[in-house]
Amino acid sequence: MWNLSFGFFGVQIAYALQSANISRIFATLGADPHQLSFFWILPPLMGMIVQPFIGKWSDRTWCRLGRRKPYLLAGAVVAVLVMLLLPNAGSLNLSTAYLFLGLNSAMWFGLFSLIFLDTSINVAMQPFKMMVGDMVNEEQKAKAYSIQSFLCNAGSLVGYLLPIFFTWIGIANEAPEGVVPDSVITSFYVGAAILIVCVLYTFMKVKEMPPKEYAEFHGIKTAGQAGRDENGGRDENGGLLRLLVKAPRTFWTVGLVQFFCWAAFLYMWTYSNGTLAFNCWGGVTDTASKAYQDAGNWVGVVFAVQAAGSIIWATILPKFQNLKLAYVVSLLIGAVGFASLFFIHDKFVACGAYFLIGTAWAAMLALPFTLLTNSLEGNPHMGSYLGLFNCTICLPQIVAAATGGGVLKLLGGSQAMMLVAAGVFLAIGAIFVQIIDIKHID
């Protein structure tokens, strides 16, 4: 189970670098705070488009390299290449060339790099979730996803802390206006190297089941049954829309909770840099200033604290006898963490708030996929459903990103108030936990 998910450690480093630094990078390139949320539309949009198809195609892929592994490797290779380009968007003498929609050419370069980066990360990430569903029995699945959650958060810790680590050892954390600091650029380079090493480890160590063994393991009537109907022929009615209509109630009820949770975290990723710079660095708004870049490094620290809180809380979650209670408690603690940031003006105290937020993150990583995959046990379209379920992660981020600028304006331009709104979203999610159908695993 460890080998099955080890590559996820590297993938999550890439994702953490993206999450902690995208707002910082685009603010450095010249984006207005009211524009920042629009850049965050792209990552979930690409996930929403890519992951259902990766699930569907890999359900039907049986080759000598495996079933899910070819997608894993292809996504990782592209992600590595793009990670070498994205942080250099401000170093190509493009910043002064304005094109259209208020974005300069450096921002457009970064935008397209972000599209390719998030597409490739999604292609590499989804196979890990699917391989657990494919190769782990129901009794051990919660443990397998817990291991994956641990590696996910461990990778996040590394990715979040890389910029401040490289600043600490002497790599420049300041740069000319419109240029991303070397500390961030170096972090992306090192993250890319770790990513490919970890993915290659899983690729070489894990042997996926051949069709006949897979069919026996899942109690499917004929070998290669995935993607086929009950008579053994190609399932022409197994299209994504048809599968969505036939999805179990667990899919929809957990998905509703997911909507509010992921909208909340989109706000965290987008507005943490501005909130900390303003609240904890004396009202700083100048993105070219040393104080703003120092706050950007501290975002990595508080996100790392959040990941640490998530790791600790993940060890407590299994002690709950009631899954719904565990979900509710986790989200409400996270809501308190978000709301408290409005009142915090010390960077070290802010770490405590993000530690509380980590409890919600732990629940979001572990509980939804455990609930769903158990309700789908033996379903030949497991990969397709997991890909579709990713839309419950992506759609709320798209909605939150598309409306973020307007909400920020309604809240008086206060980025700290956006984190209060995130706390409200988690509280609403906790309310809707009560309607989740878990009869399949009781």
Computed Rg: 21 Å
Low-confidence stretches: 223-237
| Approximate shape | globular
Overall average residue pLDDT: 83
Could you say how many structural domains there are in total? 1
List the quaternary state of the chains.
single chain
What sequence of helices (H) and strands (E) makes up the elements? HHHHHHHHHHHHHHHH
Intertermini distance: 24 Å
Gist of the model:
By secondary structure, the protein is mainly alpha-helical.
What do you see in this structure?
The chain has helices at about 1-30, 35-40, 40-60, 70-85, 105-135, 140-170, 180-205, 210-220, 240-245, 250-280, 290-315, 325-340, 345-375, 380-390, 390-410, 415-430. With about 450 residues, it is mainly α. The chain has one domain: Growth Hormone, Chain: A, CATH 1.20.1250.20. The two termini are about 25 Å apart.
Write the layout of secondary structure elements.
Blueprint: H1 2-28, H2 33-39, H3 42-59, H4 69-83, H5 105-135, H6 138-168, H7 182-205, H8 211-218, H9 240-245, H10 249-280, H11 290-316, H12 323-340, H13 347-375, H14 382-389, H15 391-410, H16 415-432
Helix pairs in contact: 1-2, 1-5, 1-6, 1-7, 1-10, 2-15, 3-5, 3-14, 3-15, 4-5, 4-7, 5-6, 5-14, 6-7, 6-11, 6-13, 10-11, 10-13, 10-15, 10-16, 11-13, 12-13, 12-16
